[in-house]
Amino acid sequence: MTISKDIANTIVDPEAYANWELSHGAFTELRRTAPLAVAEPDDYDPFWVVTKFDDIQAIEKQNDLFHNRERPTTLVKKSQLAAAEQNPSSGGGFRTLVHMDNPDHFKHRILTQGWFMPQNLRKLEDRIREIAREFVDNMLAFDGECDFAKDVAFLYPLRVVMEVIGVPQEDETRMLKLTQELFGQNDPDLNRAGRAYESPEERMASMREVFMDFINYFTAMSEDRRQSPREDLATVIANAEVDGEPIGFGEAMGYYIIAATAGHDTTSATTAGTLWTLAERPDLFDRIRNDMSLLPNLIEESIRWESPVKHFMRTAMGDTEIRGQKISEGDWLMLCYPSGNRDEEKFDNPFEFSVDRDQKKHVAFGYGAHVCLGQHLARMEMRVLWEELFPKLKSVELSGEPARMIAAFVCGPKRVPIRFQAA
Predict the structure, then answer these.
(1) What is the edge-to-edge ordering of all strands in the sheet holding 36-39?
(2) What is the mean pLDDT of residues 357-381?
(3) Can you tell me the distance from the alpha carbon of 237 to that of 22, in angstroms, rounded to the nearest whole number?
(4) What percent of the chain has pLDDT over 90?
(5) pLDDT tens, 71-88?
């Protein structure tokens, strides 16, 4: 079954994710009429659109059948693939955990997995709380009005993750800019050009520059940590061994880049989205502020609600069947996390923000072997920030028009103007 061209073009359109009415409207229609069907949008190879919670989980847990490495793990236009083939040097050949399948994925993931387990993160909580207090104090110093996205949500998770990696504070602005240029390449407010790219070749050239800036930075950091090890994640990566040999250059660079980008940007998106939501729901804000035991529920619901990772792609390594549809070897599948997290079969009133639902049931962190490595850190960061911020606020409301990033992969609010009263 092939979905309509209009819906196919909508679900790949970065503008649609900046306008929830468009993207969620398309996914709602697909869940109702074609929950697993083929899309053929303009300038893309055909792919299956996976919109249901159970189907997303079923694919994510079958890692031998659905691979990451054979085809792109994110949506890429045919024209962009052609531009990349004309200049294959883009990106320096780095490879992240997202691009790996077993056994490579397990061997590389295990290198840092201990750093992100709850028992180790508890050692970091005091320092994370100090950072949270610093940014709460900075917010309160704005005297009742600020852009919560730019002034708090972008910066607080960035500081936490950069300290975990070992990036010095004076380089945080650089890391934020590179992250926004990477994930916001379709957004003129965020990309390197400061405007819409005029051709696939221009886009690829810009992205090569971004990747090379990352690679040059982390190459120098890696050399430093081999010479002078410290108690940070960079030292772990720089001195890691896989199968008794030093970690490959491309794999090390992939580790640094994914930690330095997704490690804070997804949490920033959820944090900004949470306060946006509460600013529109003063009764809910008051309820949580008066009952902080609701924070775990608030955090899980906000992660479901925002779903900052919009999709990942998988490639079928054999013929199979899902929801009565025959999937063939080599088929490309788009796992649509915002859609799975609005699945009416799994969530009562899925378009209602509720802290009273089954809070652990969402797919925003993925599932199975590729579940988000930093999920426990993200939850801790948000919990600590809200514990420090909410008791100091009497009220919060929007003071202008919020806006979302124009992006179809990792994205969230880019502007959340608020007016607040200190307690």
Answers:
(1) 36-39, 47-50, 332-336, 311-316, 66-67
(2) 91
(3) 41
(4) 88
(5) 999 999 998 888 777 765
Place of tokens 């900004």: 272
Bridging pattern class, strands 47-50 and 332-336: parallel
Q: Which tokens go with 397?
A: 């409301």
Identify which of 289, 264, 272, 278 has the alpha carbon closest to the alpha carbon of residue 148. 272
Q: How far apart are CA 335 and CA 322, in angstroms?
A: 13
- Bridge-partner residues for 336, per DSSP? 311
Residue 70, phi then psi, degrees to nearest 5: -70, -35
Q: Where are the beta strands (DSSP E) in 217-294?
A: 241-242, 245-246
Vertex 16: Cα angle to 10 and 20 (nearest 5): 120
Question: What gap in Å lies between CA 179 and CA 218, rounded to an integer?
Answer: 14
Please state whether the predicted TM-score (pTM) of the whole model is above 0.90. yes
CATH 1.10.630.10, applies to 5-422: yes
Instruction: For the chain, give every domain's residue range.
Output: 5-422
Q: Residue 138 has which token pair? A: 């900075």
In the three-class reduction of DSSP (H, G, I as helix; E, B as strand; rest coil), residue 37 is classed as: strand
